Amino acid sequence: MLSEIPINLQMVNKKDLDKEIMRAAMIAELDAVNLYESMAALTDSEDLKVILLDVAKEEKVHVAMFQTVLMEVDREYMKIMADYALGKGRM
User: Fold this and answer.
1) Which is nearest to 58 in space by CA: 27, 26, 24, 29?
2) Cα separation of 61 and 56, whole Å?
3) How far apart are CA 1 and CA 26, in angstroms?
4) Which of 38, 62, 60 is nearest to 48 (CA)?
5) What span, in angstroms and rounded, lies between the C-alpha atoms of 77 and 84?
6) pLDDT tens digits along 35-61
7) Hey, which of 1, 62, 84, 89 would disulfide with 29, CB 3.0 to 4.6 Å?
8) How many whole angstroms separate alpha carbon 76 and alpha carbon 80?
9) Residue in 29, 33, 26, 30 with CA at minimum distance from that of residue 52
10) What would the pLDDT profile of 78-89 be if each residue is shown by its tens digit?
């Protein structure tokens, strides 16, 4: 993982552990998206570019999966996401 986990998971309160694990997983997936898209931009090989962008897209799906579950267990996060989506960022 390119980024460091921004929190020591062993020090997290047990009731918050799953939320923090999901956030760390999202960071890892977003790192992967950035890596694959950056490499795709660098290569001259169209075949390799297609593969890299396809893998990046899969990583985005993983982010969405973690985010969906995170919203189920973190009501405050779900409210913020809903308010942002409905208000188009006007807070």
Assistant:
1) 29
2) 9
3) 11
4) 38
5) 10
6) 999 999 999 999 999 999 999 999 999
7) 62
8) 6
9) 33
10) 988 888 887 665
* Residues 68, 77: Cα–Cα separation, whole Å: 10
- Which amino acid makes up residue 73? V
Contact call for residues 71 and 83 (beta carbons, < 8 A): no
Helix/strand/coil for 18 = helix
Q: What confidence score (pLDDT) does residue 82 get? A: 87
Place of tokens 């898209």: 37
The label of the residue with tokens 């694990």 reads 21
- What one-letter code names the amino acid at 62? H
Question: Which among 33, 34, 36, 27 is positioned nearest to 70, based on CA atoms?
Answer: 27
